[in-house]
Amino acid sequence: MENTFKADQLPRDSDNSISLTLIKAALDSSVSGIIITDNQLPDNPIIYCNSSFEKMTGYKRNDIIGHNCRFLQADDRQQPERDKIREAVKKGQNISVEIRNYRKDGELFWNELYVSPIKSPDGNITHFVGVQHDVTRRKKAEEDLKHEKQLREQKITERTNELNASREYLESIVQTVRESLLVLDPGLKVISANQHFLNTFKVSLSETEDKSLYDLGNGQWNIPKLKELLEKILPTNNPVLDFEVEHNFPHIGRKLMLLNAHRIELEGEYKDRILLAIEDITERRAIEQRKDDFLSVASHELKTPLTTIKGYIQIMERLLPPESSEKLKDIIKKTARHADKLNNLIQELLEVSRIQTGNITLVKEQFDLDEMVTEMVDSLQAASSNHRIHLSGRTGIKYRGDESQLSQVVSNLLSNAIKYSPDSTDIDVHLAVVGDYVKLSVKDYGLGISPADQKKIFERFYRSSETQKHFPGMGIGLYICEQIIKNHGGSLWVDSEYGKGSTFNFTLPLN
Amino acid sequence: MKRKILICDDDEGILEMLEMVLDAEDYDVTTEQNSLKMFDRMAQVQPDMLILDLWMPVLSGDQITAKVRSTPAYQHLPILIISASRDGAEIAKNAGASAYLAKPFDIGDFMDAVEKLDTQSAA
């Protein structure tokens, strides 16, 4: 509404006060909703409202003049602010509250309400003036903030509970595990040690916690190489794996310990910690050594009579008159073959034991790789008339490695190809130089290997149940092959499709 | 004149078998199962060649070899060591053996080794 009066032309009433029209116009131009109630009438009804009030509430003047203000709260009567207003009205005091009100269409709005009494000269309260602002937006922002805060607090509480729970959880694991565990801070100071650690090293908690790892015992962990590895864990997240420490420890004497250390990955309180696990493998190593010794002796003892058997078979072959029956000749030939097989089995057993204990040594010499493979192909071809072995490609390389071990691998892959493709005839052997590696592939068109078995065939003593039924063997050939290739820094793998055949490949680094 | 070979192995089976092989090739073979008696045997037989097992009770093949080699008269005596031990080749070489064969071996390879040593010492 536009006020068009000029100051000196202000409409005035007869008593020279500003005209009521002007005052009404002023009230209507206010952004605040204003109502006046008459306290002298029963139930304190509204006798005036301005246009802002109409806009704010959606009610028209006609709807509300004569009503008590309470309709603004609709059914939401249980607000404590209502009591405050009632109290103030009763006492004739000013009051300011924020109260939930409802528009005519039922929509909630927050009303910042200021109520002040108007008194007659004799002190009676004749009217109340209510000034209102719609503070819904501000209120909503405040409420949201409060809610957010509550939610956050709730989350923090939950997280704290969780952390406490996981702390207890971890603690119980750490204490239960039958392995010595230390939790270290980034400076490699011991934050905690489990009971097993204390028992193993016969030390007390006070000798351990809050001490630098390097100061424990008689400085047993103060090893430059270990230090370097441990200090790299946090920045690089590279764990320390199977680090062996043989040391004369205080209280417990000379022991062989196996160390593994990882960065702890939990968020929050637990990051930047290192979990160090220490295992006493003295006994285990001794048992392995005894087993290795036993297998050495056993294989030696088994080979002795085998030498005699083999010798006699060959003498028999020589002594056999040329006119002897084919059947007898065949029997002697078969006996010879099985004696060789027995020898191979004994050999394999011994080698598995050696590989496991890491006792196998490579005798590296330069040799002609192509020639070695050709020889193996020729000798296997001679032994199997049912298959045709095709050799293609060449490396032209004098390879530096253990020729006898590598030829064992080639021989083993070829024998497997023959053994596991009884119903097909072709076997393809391919040699190539691939980048910095030489690569050999042996492809057969036989039984193939199921995806599940492909993962396991390189395990020691693994025999697929299918294979077990039809093909004899101990299941150590591929294990040995893989170890030999690994010892040369190469890798051995299989590509196979069940029912269609397998390709075994290995690569060897040229340098 | 027949060439004399003295064989020492604690396994009777191998001794018998090798004796049969070498007999057939016209060698004069003496066998000894007890390594401790070897030096008496050598004095008695005056062999042209020794064939020794490695792992034997009391005296091992490499010990015998080392002792034989320290005797001036036997410095060049051909000694063939046969063993089923994996490290046999190295031990035999270090002890001063002339040749080595891993058990079990082919009779053909065995005879080749014996004849080669025999020719070398005769030459």
TrEMBL record, chain A:
It catalyses: ATP + protein L-histidine = ADP + protein N-phospho-L-histidine. Residues 95-147 form the PAC domain. It is a multi-pass membrane protein. It comes from Mucilaginibacter roseus. It holds the Pfam family HATPase_c. It is found in: Membrane. SMART domains: HATPase_c (SM00387), HisKA (SM00388), PAC (SM00086), PAS (SM00091). Its main location: membrane. It is an enzyme of class 2 (transferase). Residues 19-92 form the PAS domain. This is histidine kinase. The keyword Cell division does not apply. PANTHER family: SENSOR HISTIDINE KINASE GLRK (PTHR42878:SF7), TWO-COMPONENT HISTIDINE KINASE (PTHR42878). Residues 297-511 form the Histidine kinase domain. Gene3D superfamilies: 1.10.287.130, Histidine kinase-like ATPase, C-terminal domain (3.30.565.10), PAS domain (3.30.450.20). SUPFAM superfamilies: ATPase domain of HSP90 chaperone/DNA topoisomerase II/histidine kinase (SSF55874), Homodimeric domain of signal transducing histidine kinase (SSF47384), PYP-like sensor domain (PAS domain) (SSF55785). Its EC number is 2.7.13.3. Keywords: ATP-binding, Kinase, Membrane, Nucleotide-binding, Phosphoprotein, Transferase, Transmembrane, Transmembrane helix, Two-component regulatory system.
TrEMBL record, chain B:
Gene3D superfamilies: 3.40.50.2300. Residues 4-118 form the Response regulatory domain. The keyword Mitochondrion does not apply. The modification 4-aspartylphosphate is found at D53. The keyword Signal does not apply. Coiled coil: none annotated. Keywords: Phosphoprotein. Pfam families: Response_reg. This is Response regulator.
